[in-house]
Each structure stands twice: as structure tokens, then as C-alpha cells.
């Protein structure tokens, strides 16, 4: 089992996120990730700062999308950061939801096609090819090629995906997949979909299923649970129904919580989050977290990619992971 940590901006400002990334490297995490969401702190800046402040840990983006950013820009970003980090960058390309693209007036209905073509284009650029591309989403000329040699021609590309067909495509075209396992039990239907795609992938032997879950870790279960309520109240209503169904929930269950959030009645919204809703994340003490990660390993997740609030004290959560959780899996 590999261990990744994923930092959302609610955990702190840019300086704090990079400081925590340094602590994660010291704690034994294998990778550190930054979601690439519109209107949030810029992932390219955060990954660059992290590359300069660390020396061992892999550095990844999650959900770098080929809508708000052209594949030419994504390719040069990936190649430059891989050079800066001396071969430690992983590009997470794709989407976990269409809604954020809709905010900017873009129709993301062709997300599978666009992700597939962008992945092909970026790989060809990294190999040093002239990408005179005539696809359905992208049409490029013979002037499209990198003007510098990348650190690695085979820089890994993991696909950020949702829904069974998109997840299957991630298995077919990626070096890894980044499914949102919220709740963790949803890996039970996501992993088989990814494996169907892997049947078409010659790189399947080294494929990484990096399950993106939410973590709230503390010395006490109650503190961990209370910390997760805000995350669940805000993001729970956006989860897929098939994922929610794995823990006996549906969108209808979250409707009262969503109404309270929309009305700005946040304390009431957090109080309306039930114990069943807290199952969207990995919540509890180190022993609880170990048990839940073991269950994910049995479902086929080979990298647990932990994000969300992390815990009431993110630094303490990183320390607990390094002292008591990660060593359990390194024995």
C-alpha cells in the first residue's frame, strides 16, 4: 500500500500547505497531491513550491482539466515541474465533476473524448513528437511540439474520473486512476470498472489505483467525527448516487443539509449530518483508520490518497499517520 496526502486549501494558506507537505515527506508519505479546481489556490504554484521544499516525495495534481487549460500548457507545466523535481511529478488529468466547468460557461459533456485526446497529445509531446493532431476535440498543426527535452518521456499520467464508463476509460489509457472513494465502500464498484479498462492497457502491471478519500484522524473518535461534519455538509450533496448507495444513502438524504448550507445556516447544517453520513470519509483513531485502509486494500486500492480536513489538527494527523498508521503497513 502506498500512502498519498492531498491538501485542500481549507487546511491553510500556501505557506502552510507547503509546510505540511514537508512534514508529510518526513512522516513517510509516498506522494503529495493538490486538487486543480477553478477559483482555488493555483495547483501549479503549490506543486512548484513543494518541489523546491522537498527531495523525495512524489508530487501530483488531481483533476487538471483539458477545458480551462489547453493540453499544450498542461504538457509544458508537467515537463517543467518534472525537471524541477528531478522526476517526481505525476500528472492527474481529467475531471471528478462536470459542474465546475459549467461555472465557467463550458459544456463538459464530451469529457471522456476530451480526456482521451488530451492524454494522447500530452504523451506524444513528452516523447518529442510533432503533434500534427486532427481529432474531434483538438486540431493542431505541425508547429505543435516541445522546444525542450523533458526530464522523462514517460512521465506518469493518472486519470481523474467518475462514473463507470469514465473509470473504465481511466484503466484503459492511464498509468494510474484517481477515483473519488467517498465513501470508501464505493471502491467496491469503482475498482471493478477500472479493472475492465485495464484489460486493454499494456501498462497494467504497474498501474496504480490511487483512491482519493477524506480523512479525519485524531486520538479520539468524537474529535475526528466532529471535524468531518463540515466537509460532509458542504460536499456530501454533490456525491454520486451509486457511491452513496454503498452505505445506504442517497441524494435525498442530503437535501435538508444542502438547504441549510444554501441558507447560510452552517452550524445547523453541521448538526444535521448524521453518523451514517460521516461514513463518506475515513474517520476515527489510528486503529480505526488502519482498519478502514485495510478494507480498501482488500477492495483493490493500492494507494490511499488522503485529503479533506485530515483532522482537528492537520499537523497532528500527519504525525499520527507517520508514527502509528503507515508503519503498520510497512511491516
State the end-to-end distance: 11 Å
* Cα Rg: 19 Å
Specify the helix fraction band: 40-55%
* Structure summary, number of beta strands: 9
Question: Beta-sheet strand percentage?
Answer: 5-15%
Given the structure, what is the number of helices? 13
Instruction: Give the H and E element order.
Output: EHEHEHEHHEHEHEHHHHEHEH
Overall 3D form: globular
For this structure, the quaternary state is single chain
Averaging pLDDT over every residue, what do you get? 96
Q: Outline the biggest β-sheet.
A: 8 strands, parallel, barrel
- Residue ranges: pLDDT <50 for 5 or more in a row? none
Major β-sheet strand ordering: 1-2-3-4-5-6-7-9
Q: Structural class, from helix and strand content?
A: alpha/beta
List keywords for this structure.
13 helices; 15% strand; eight-stranded parallel beta barrel; 331 residues
Describe the model:
The protein is an alpha/beta fold and 331 residues long. It has helices at residues 14-27, 43-53, 71-84, 99-103, 111-126, 164-173, 187-198, 221-235, 241-245, 251-262, 266-271, 286-299, 314-330; strands at 2-6, 31-35, 58-62, 89-94, 157-160, 176-177, 208-217, 282-284, 303-310. Strands 1-2-3-4-5-6-7-9 form an eight-stranded parallel barrel, surrounded by nine helices. α3 (71-84) links the parallel β3 (58-62) and β4 (89-94). The termini are close together. The mean pLDDT is 96.
What would you say about this model in short?
The chain has helices at residues 14-27, 43-53, 71-84, 99-103, 111-126, 164-173, 187-198, 221-235, 241-245, 251-262, 266-271, 286-299, 314-330; strands at residues 2-6, 31-35, 58-62, 89-94, 157-160, 176-177, 208-217, 282-284, 303-310.
Amino acid at each position: 500500500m502506498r500512502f498519498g496526502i492531498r491538501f485542500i486549501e481549507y487546511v491553510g494558506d500556501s505557506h502552510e500547505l507547503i509546510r505540511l507537505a514537508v512534514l508529510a515527506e518526513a512522516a513517510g508519505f509516498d506522494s503529495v497531491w493538490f486538487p486543480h479546481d477553478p477559483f482555488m489556490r493555483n495547483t501549479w504554484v503549490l506543486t512548484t513550491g513543494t518541489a523546491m521544499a522537498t527531495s523525495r516525495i512524489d508530487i501530483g495534481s488531481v483533476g487538471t482539466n483539458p477545458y480551462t487549460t489547453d493540453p499544450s500548457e498542461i504538457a509544458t507545466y508537467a515537463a517543467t515541474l518534472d525537471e524541477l523535481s528531478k522526476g517526481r511529478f505525476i500528472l492527474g488529468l481529467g475531471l471528478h465533476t462536470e459542474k465546475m466547468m459549467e461555472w465557467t460557461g463550458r459544456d463538459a459533456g464530451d469529457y471522456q473524448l476530451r480526456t482521451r485526446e488530451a492524454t494522447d497529445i500530452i504523451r506524444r509531446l513528452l516523447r518529442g513528437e510533432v503533434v500534427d493532431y486532427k481529432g474531434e476535440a483538438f486540431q493542431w498543426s505541425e508547429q505543435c511540439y516541445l522546444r525542450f527535452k523533458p526530464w522523462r518521456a514517460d512521465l506518469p499520467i493518472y486519470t481523474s474520473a467518475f462514473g463507470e464508463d469514465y473509470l473504465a476509460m481511466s484503466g484503459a489509457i492511464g498509468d494510474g486512476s484517481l477515483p473519488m472513494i467517498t465513501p470508501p465502500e464505493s471502491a467496491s464498484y469503482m475498482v471493478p470498472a477500472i479493472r475492465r479498462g485495464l484489460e486493454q492497457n499494456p501498462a497494467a502491471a504497474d498501474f496504480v489505483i490511487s483512491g482519493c478519500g477524506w480523512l479525519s484522524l485524531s486520538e479520539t473518535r468524537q474529535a475526528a467525527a466532529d471535524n468531518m461534519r463540515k466537509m460532509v455538509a458542504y460536499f456530501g450533496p454533490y456525491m454520486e448516487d451509486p457511491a452513496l448507495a454503498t452505505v445506504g444513502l442517497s441524494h435525498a438524504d442530503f437535501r435538508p443539509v444542502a438547504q441549510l448550507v444554501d441558507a447560510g445556516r452552517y452550524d445547523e447544517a453541521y448538526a444535521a449530518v448524521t453518523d451514517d453520513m460521516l461514513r463518506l470519509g475515513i474517520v476515527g483513531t489510528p486503529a480505526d483508520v488502519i482498519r478502514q485502509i485495510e478494507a480498501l486494500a482488500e477492495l483493490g486500492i493500492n494507494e490511499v490518497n488522503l485529503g479533506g480536513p485530515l483532522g482537528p489538527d492537520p499537523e497532528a494527523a500527519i504525525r499520527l499517520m507517520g508514527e502509528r498508521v503507515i508503519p503498520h503497513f510497512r511491516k
